[in-house]
């Protein structure tokens, strides 16, 4: 049994209230647009492993080493992380989960045996509620919980 907190588009916002949901997670994934070093440091200091990719608003020394795309194995599953879905390389067929952001709109769907997941924006709603996702999985079954913050 494993829990992964999935965030994107926090845009300089890291709220204390997120700890209520994220402290019970085994891993965190951030799909880009952290926005600044202060937020990056706060997220890195949550005390659990976190994987970042660089978003189109991530500039400066702190963001220089963030990859555009990242493939990571977690709990026997392959996660492919990218900020903008159109930038997904052609062949990611080995991935079980495709994590992306950028649109600020929550999305979760299965396509070709893969789960595509956009947690929405945890920092700026753009007319939609702020939120993120808690992904729980055990063996081959998974459950996506969309946490609405506002």
Element layout with pairings:
Blueprint: E1 2-7, H1 19-22, E2 27-30, H2 37-44, E3 50-52, E4 69-74, E5 77-82, E6 97-99, E7 107-111, E8 114-118, E9 131-138, E10 141-148
Parallel strand pairs: 1-2, 2-3, 5-6, 6-8
Antiparallel strand pairs: 1-9, 4-5, 7-8, 9-10
How would you describe this structure to a colleague?
There is one protein chain. A hairpin with a 2-residue loop joins β7 and β8 (114-118). The mean pLDDT is 93. It is built from two helices and ten strands. The chain is 8% helix and 36% strand. By secondary structure, it is mostly beta strands. The strands form two sheets. It has a five-stranded mixed β-sheet with strand order 3-2-1-9-10, with no helix packed on it. Strands 4-5-6-8-7 form a five-stranded mixed β-sheet, with no helix packed on it.
Q: What are its keywords?
A:
150 residues, mainly beta
For the termini, the CA-CA separation is 28 Å
Q: What is the number of helices?
A: 2
The secondary structure category is: mainly beta
On the 0 to 100 scale, the average pLDDT is 93
Order of helices and strands: EHEHEEEEEEEE
Low-confidence blocks of residues = none
What's the gyration radius in Å? 14 Å
Strand order of the largest sheet: 3-2-1-9-10
Specify the helix fraction band.
under 10%
Q: Major beta sheet, specifics?
A: 5 strands, mixed
**Could you tell me the number of beta strands?**
10
Percent of residues in beta strands: 35-45%
Overall 3D shape: globular
């Amino acid at each position: 049994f494993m829990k992964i907190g999935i965030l994107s588009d926090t845009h300089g916002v890291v709220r204390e209230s997120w700890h209520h949901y994220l402290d019970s997670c085994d891993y965190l994934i951030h799909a880009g647009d952290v926005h600044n070093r202060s937020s990056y440091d706060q997220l890195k200091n949550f005390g659990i492993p976190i994987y970042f990719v660089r978003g189109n608003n991530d500039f400066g020394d702190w963001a220089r080493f963030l990859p555009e795309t990242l493939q990571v194995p977690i709990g026997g599953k392959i996660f492919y992380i990218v900020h903008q879905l159109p930038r997904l390389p052609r062949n990611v067929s080995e991935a079980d989960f495709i994590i992306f952001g950028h649109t600020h709109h929550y999305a979760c769907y299965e396509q070709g045996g893969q789960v595509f997941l956009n947690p929405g924006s945890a920092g700026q709603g753009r007319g939609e509620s702020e939120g993120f996702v808690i992904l729980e999985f055990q063996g081959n079954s998974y459950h996506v919980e969309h946490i609405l913050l506002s």
